[in-house]
Amino acid sequence: MNDVADEWILAELGISREVYQELLVIIGKVPTVDEVSTLMAMWQSQGQKQGLLSWLRGQPHSMELHDYLTDNQEPESQSVREPRVKECIAIARQLFQPSPSPVAPNPNAMDLRSSGNLIYMVGDVSLYFTGSEYGRRYLHLVDNPVALESDDETASYMQLILDSLAANNAIFSHHRIGEGGLFGALLAVTATYGNGFEILTCREVRLDSFLFGERGVRYVVFLDEPREDFFLQKLGEARINCCFLGRVTKNRIVVDDMDFGKVSLYR
């Protein structure tokens, strides 16, 4: 589609280019005037308590998935409705309830994850969630994991590359994603220093799989902007996938522009 046609559609629909791009993700195709009108009516019926773009990002999306994603989806997950971003707030607060006596951050610790630092996820996105803490505790699913090949070799290789980058001061730190998934790993690392995080999720993957899935070999990596180009170059040379998540924040958690609240609300 050329720019002239694009501008005509935007003018016809009466929306900004940013909102238009989000509609493409949610609807999965070029939206009609009726589809835009319906979504606008839904937004207005909720009292416009938040901006249109933030509200849209809280809606289910239907982007066409790459073959490697659809071929590896769990059959058990098909009957589970994908949660909206705002529904993930309740999920996260149930899974990561604060402990009665939270450990206070150590003010003397060297904070390598200060506000503004970049956050990357290294490794492939998570496609599975039924065998995770989220699946067991929140969805009450019986754990029946899909047989997967051993991840030992992949983990050793990734660990070797990331250890080398850390030793050369190309990254501040890296942490394996395990129980609690990506959300749990980010919370555990940043909250240790009294910080939070602001991230954007991968719109091609189920939201609960991306945030709470535990399978596969993945790491969260923290670095600053001057080191970013070198970091991406070395991962490319090593043929390791990664995706930019967002940044470290001061004591708040934000996912897809939805405020999840202060870090103190979570474990």
Can you describe this structure?
Helix content is 40%, strand content 13%. The chain is an alpha+beta fold and 267 residues long. Strands 2-4-1-5-3-6-7 form a 7-stranded mixed β-sheet, with helices on both faces. The longest helix is centred in the middle third of the chain and has 16 residues, at 152-167.
Quick structural overview:
This protein is of the alpha+beta class and 267 residues long. The protein is built from 11 helices and 7 strands. Mean pLDDT is 81; it is low at 106-112.
Q: How much helix is in the residues?
A: 40-55%
**Which assembly state applies to the chains in this document?**
single chain
Strand tally, please?
A: 7
* Lateral strand order in the biggest sheet: 2-4-1-5-3-6-7
Average pLDDT score: 81
Report the span from N to C terminus.
Answer: 47 Å
